[in-house]
Write a structure and sequence with these properties.
- The chain has 12 helices and no strands.
- The chain has 334 residues and is mainly α.
- The protein has a single domain, classed as MetI-like fold.
- The longest helix has 37 residues.
- Belongs to the binding-protein-dependent transport system permease family.
- It is found in: Cell membrane.
- Keywords: Cell membrane, Membrane, Transmembrane, Transmembrane helix, Transport.
- It is a multi-pass membrane protein.
Length: 334
C-alpha cells in the first residue's frame, strides 16, 4: 500500500526537475553580452591586433626589467669596450657590427658600447615619454573638450580658438627652442630624468588639442541625448552629468585615440633626440642612436638598422593594436 504514494510523488517531481533544467538552459541560451564582452571577443578574433598587443607587452616588460636584463645578458650602457674595436678603422671587430654571444646586438663604433644595453635602456626612456605624454594629452583633452562641448557659448569659443592656435603652432621648432634653453638638471633629478620630464610636458601639452577636438564633437552630440535631459530634469548638476553620465559614453573614442597617439609621441621623442635636444648623452635613446649612426652607416649599417628597426616595430605594433581596438569598440561593426 505504501508503494503507490511514493511512486506518485516520484512521478510528480520528475517533470518539475526537467522543467527547471529546460528553463536554465533557455536562460543561458538567451543570455546577453555586455559591450565589454562583445569588444573583447572582437579583439581576440583580430589576430593582427593581438599580435601588436603581444609585441607591446613584450616591450613594456623589457623596459621594466631593463636593469635585470642588462645584468644577465649585457653590459653597462656607458661602458667602453675598446678591445672590440679595430684600432685602425674604429669599427667593430667581426661581422654584423660585432654581434657575438657576449654582445647580442654588437657594439658601437669608436667606443665599443654594448648596443643591446643601449636599446633596452632606450626602450625604457621612449616608452616612459610616450605613455606619460599620451596620458597628459588625454587628461587635458578630455577636460577641455568636454567643457567646450557641454558648456558651449563663450567657453566653447575660447577653448576652440586655443586649440586652433596650438594645432597651427610649429610644435617641433618650439620644442627645440624650449628644450635648448632649459637646464640639464632640475627638480632634484639627474640629467636623464630631468630631460624626460621636460619632453613629457612639451609633447603632452602640444598633443591635447587633437583629442580635445574629438571629445568636443562627441560631447556636442551626447548633450542632446535623452539620458542627459533626464538627468537635468532630476536636478543633476553639471559635474555629475559630465563625469557620471557622459564620460562613460566617451570612454571608447578616448581609449582608441590614446592608443593611436602613443606612436606619434614615440616618433616625436625620437625626432627630438635625433636633432640633439632630446635625451642627452651618454644616456641612450633610439633617436640619439640613429643620430650617432649617420657617419657610420656606410661602414657599419647594423648600427643604424637596429635602432631604426626598434622604432619601426614599436610604432607599427601600437598602430595595429589601436586599429584593432577601434574596430572592436565600433558598435556598427559586425
Amino acid at each position: 500500500m505504501s508503494l503507490g504514494p511514493e511512486t506518485s510523488l516520484h512521478d510528480e517531481s520528475t517533470p518539475t526537475a526537467d522543467a527547471a533544467q529546460e528553463r536554465d538552459t533557455s536562460e543561458k541560451a538567451i543570455a546577453g553580452r555586455s559591450l565589454k564582452q562583445i569588444a573583447w571577443r572582437r579583439l581576440k578574433k583580430d589576430r593582427v591586433a593581438v599580435g601588436g598587443g603581444i609585441v607591446i607587452l613584450v616591450l613594456i616588460a623589457i623596459a621594466i626589467l631593463a636593469p635585470l636584463l642588462i645584468k644577465l645578458l649585457g653590459h653597462p650602457f656607458d661602458e667602453y669596450h675598446n678591445d672590440k674595436i679595430d684600432p685602425t678603422l674604429s669599427l667593430p671587430l667581426g661581422k654584423l657590427g660585432g654581434i657575438s654571444k657576449d654582445f647580442l646586438l654588437g657594439v658601437e663604433p669608436v667606443n665599443g658600447r654594448d648596443i643591446f644595453s643601449r636599446i633596452v635602456y632606450g626602450a625604457q626612456t621612449t616608452l616612459t615619454v610616450a605613455f606619460l605624454s599620451a596620458f597628459l594629452s588625454t587628461i587635458l583633452g578630455v577636460l577641455f573638450g568636454m567643457s567646450a562641448g557641454f558648456l558651449g557659448g563663450w567657453v566653447d569659443s575660447v577653448i576652440s580658438r586655443i586649440m586652433d592656435f596650438l594645432l597651427a603652432f610649429p610644435q617641433l621648432l618650439f620644442s627645440i627652442a624650449l628644450v635648448s634653453v632649459l637646464p640639464q638638471s632640475m627638480l632634484g633629478f639627474n640629467t636623464r630624468w630631468s630631460r624626460t620630464i621636460v619632453l613629457i610636458v612639451v609633447i603632452g601639452f602640444f598633443g591635447w588639442p587633437y583629442i580635445g577636438r574629438i571629445v568636443r564633437g562627441q560631447t556636442l552630440s551626447l548633450r542632446e541625448r535623452e539620458f542627459v535631459e533626464a538627468s537635468r530634469s532630476l536636478g543633476a548638476r553639471s559635474p555629475r552629468i559630465l563625469f557620471r553620465e557622459m564620460l562613460p559614453n566617451l570612454a571608447a573614442p578616448i581609449l582608441v585615440y590614446t592608443t593611436l597617439i602613443i606612436p606619434t609621441n614615440i616618433l616625436t621623442e625620437a625626432a627630438l633626440s635625433f636633432l640633439g635636444v632630446g635625451i642627452p648623452p651618454p644616456y641612450p635613446s633610439w633617436g640619439g642612436m640613429l643620430s650617432d649612426a649617420l657617419q657610420f652607416y656606410r661602414y657599419d649599417p647594423m648600427f643604424m638598422i637596429i635602432p631604426g628597426a626598434m622604432i619601426f616595430i614599436t610604432v607599427l605594433a601600437f598602430n595595429l593594436f589601436g586599429d584593432g581596438l577601434r574596430d572592436a569598440l565600433d558598435p556598427k561593426a559586425r
